[in-house]
């Protein structure tokens, strides 16, 4: 039923429009598109689960979601991190109901079956009497998430056992992750818990905004300009490079400095005593890029974004990493998960000051956060009517993704990998991200026999 209501011929027409820098508004609200995204994108691509610092010792656990799949991540006694479906294999209830903690074993609240940190079933209430020998406990352990891999401490899961390795999927994004996550000794650590809040928005809008939309900064966040926190120059968030990477990923390397103007403090204003670590952990090209950068902002497809900004004034600058997961709750709703990460090697005073900067800007009550999500909700409100939902691609309902198309050419001198354009006011990542969306969405079911024969 579903597969026939989103006919592949629609994707054919879409491809043509996307090549022209146009995108129909209904892809952000259509319920059939959303259902297909769950099957063709979220059941096949790598999704972020946690940072390894959230699971510091054997028995540490956190609970997460891969869209609608509840996930229990555990550090086992051998130090390995395992991920299971957080659903009891007896009758299916949610096994672990806490967000995080430390345990030796997990006991189900329904009938009391108990599982160890490796997911093995180790206890069945009155097992000998009610089941007898026919009960093979080793067949009733927790169900593992098919693939769990990590890079620079970031743990990702994949529901598709045949998915490409995470290393290949991230591709050249790893070069930039090395700078953002691996620059200092000991890497990064999560401070506090991930904050969560629900927003009326489509997941692709959050992704777009962080992946490739520095253009909105001067208008959406106008109040920061009026308060003197951001520069008056309307082009400031565009100075730097927008880099298109493989598999729908992209990053903006923002210098926020007009050509010919004095450079901002190097290395995102990080304290000078940390610089020797950067030289130890990064190569010459990575140092060259990092030294000039004020903000890194981008996305790892499909629903992980990151923002590494600078807050404060000269002499009191603070940099941190905010990682965002856009968890879809439907075509018009997302749950935002937001982590604060900081260099493990930074001083406690620096970490505290940076955390305050994060809470006031990109935390759930932060000024910048409020600005963005209000606009995203209005996209949903304005996209549900007859005109916006029309599937007629000749009808005048196509959105504009034209910025820089065929006008801005790649800068071959940029030291980092990927296709780097010499401005961040550009729709190049948007176009590449949506082209990847289309590629995934138009791939037929590989296991049609299983659930692809509905009509
Ligand atoms: Fe978990 Fe019955 S549902 S023990
Ligand atoms: Fe914003």
Automatic annotation (TrEMBL):
The family database entries (InterPro entries) matched by this protein are listed as: RHO_NdoB-like_C, Rieske_2Fe-2S, Rieske_2Fe-2S_sf, Ring_hydroxy_dOase_asu_C_dom, Rng_hydr_dOase-A
As given in the record, the signal peptide range reads: none
Domain Rieske residues, every copy: 46-157
Q: Which CDD domains match?
A: RHO_alpha_C_NDO-like
SUPFAM superfamilies from the xrefs?
Bet v1-like, ISP domain
Care to name a GO molecular-function term for this sequence?
monooxygenase activity
Keyword list (alphabetical) reads: 2Fe-2S, Aromatic hydrocarbons catabolism, Dioxygenase, Iron, Iron-sulfur, Metal-binding, NAD, Oxidoreductase
Pfam families tied to this protein:
Rieske (PF00355), Ring_hydroxyl_A (PF00848)
**In which family does this protein belong, per the annotation?**
Belongs to the bacterial ring-hydroxylating dioxygenase alpha subunit family.
Question: PANTHER family of this UniProt entry?
Answer: 3-PHENYLPROPIONATE_CINNAMIC ACID DIOXYGENASE SUBUNIT ALPHA, CHOLINE MONOOXYGENASE, CHLOROPLASTIC
Protein's name according to its UniProt entry: Aromatic ring-hydroxylating dioxygenase subunit alpha
Q: Which organism is it from?
A: Brevibacillus thermoruber
The organism that produces this protein has a lineage beginning with:
Bacteria, Bacillati, Bacillota, Bacilli, Bacillales
């Amino acid at each position: 039923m579903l597969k026939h209501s989103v006919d592949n011929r629609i994707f054919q027409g879409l491809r043509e429009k996307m090549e022209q820098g146009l995108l129909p508004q209904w892809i952000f609200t259509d319920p059939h598109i959303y259902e297909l995204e769950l099957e063709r994108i979220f059941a096949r691509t790598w999704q972020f689960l946690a940072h390894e610092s959230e699971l510091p010792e054997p028995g540490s656990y956190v609970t997460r979601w891969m869209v609608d799949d509840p996930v229990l991540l555990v550090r086992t006694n051998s130090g390995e991190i395992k991920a299971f479906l957080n659903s009891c294999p007896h009758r299916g209830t949610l096994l672990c109901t806490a967000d995080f903690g430390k345990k030796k074993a997990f006991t189900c609240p329904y009938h009391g079956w108990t599982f160890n940190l490796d997911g093995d079933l180790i206890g069945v209430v009155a097992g000998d009497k009610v089941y007898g020998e026919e009960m093979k406990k080793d067949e009733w352990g927790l169900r593992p998430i098919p693939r769990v891999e990590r890079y620079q401490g970031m743990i990702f899961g994949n529901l598709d056992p045949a998915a490409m390795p995470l290393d290949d999927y991230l591709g050249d994004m790893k070069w930039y992750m090395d700078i953002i996550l691996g620059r200092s000794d000991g890497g990064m650590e999560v401070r506090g818990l991930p904050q969560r809040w629900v927003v009326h928005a489509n997941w692709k809008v959050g992704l777009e905004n962080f992946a490739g939309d520095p253009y909105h900064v001067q208008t959406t966040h106008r109040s920061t300009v009026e308060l003197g926190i951001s520069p008056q120059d309307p082009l400031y968030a565009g100075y730097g490079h927008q880099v298109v990477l493989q598999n729908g990923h992209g990053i903006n390397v923002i210098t926020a400095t007009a050509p010919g103007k004095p450079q901002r403090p190097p290395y995102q204003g990080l304290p000078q005593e940390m610089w020797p670590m950067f030289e130890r952990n990064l190569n010459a090209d990575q140092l060259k890029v990092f030294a000039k950068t004020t903000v890194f902002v981008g996305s790892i497809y499909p629903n992980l974004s990151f923002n590494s900004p600078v807050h404060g004034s000269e002499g009191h600058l603070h940099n941190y990493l905010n990682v965002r997961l856009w968890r879809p709750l439907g075509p018009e709703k997302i749950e935002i998960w937001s982590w604060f990460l900081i260099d493990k090697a930074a001083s406690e005073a620096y970490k505290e000051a940076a955390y305050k900067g994060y809470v006031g800007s990109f935390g759930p009550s932060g000024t910048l956060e409020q600005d963005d999500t209000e606009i995203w909700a209005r996209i949903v409100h304005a996209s549900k009517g007859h005109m916006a939902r029309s599937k007629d691609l000749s009808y005048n309902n196509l959105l504009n993704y034209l910025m820089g198309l065929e006008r801005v050419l790649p800068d071959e001198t940029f030291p980092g990998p990927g296709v780097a354009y010499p401005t961040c006011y550009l729709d190049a990542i948007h176009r590449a991200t949506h082209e990847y969306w289309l590629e995934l969405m138009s791939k037929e079911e590989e296991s049609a026999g299983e659930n692809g024969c509905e009509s």
